Amino acid sequence: MIRHTVVFRLKHTSGSAAEASFLKEAMKLVAIAEVQKFEQLRQVSPKNSYSFGFSMEFADQAEYTVYNEHPLHVAFVRDRWVPEVAEFMEIDYVPL
Fold it and tell me: Does CATH place domain 2-93 in 3.30.70.100?
């Protein structure tokens, strides 16, 4: 199992229609069959500048690769993520 996580800050004003549109569009990633346990999270710690997190799981590396190369994911990254995300950190975990 691989848990793929990303924390990020958008270029949009908090609570704006643009922010809501981005988060709604990201929900389309759950249509990718390999995506399991998708969550959108609000980051609340004052210890960093990130605002949101996404978390999802994949059965194995092969399924994670399918997700990364899936047209829905590629389009989301190209059309929404790259132009709208100000800062991010991606972390992928496997159980010990």
Answer: yes
**pLDDT score, position 83:** 98
Share of the chain above pLDDT 70, in %: 100
The three-point CA angle 18-19-21 to 5° equals 65
Beta bridge partners of 30: none
Tokens of 30: 């759950």
Predicted local distance difference test score (pLDDT) of residue 58 = 98
Spell out where the chain has E strands: 2-10, 36-42, 52-58, 85-93
Average pLDDT over residues 76-88: 98
Burial zone of 7 (CB within 10 Å; 0-12 exposed, 13-18 middle, 19+ buried)? buried
**60 close to 1: Cβ distance less than 8 angstroms:** yes
CB distance 12 to 22 below 8 Å: yes
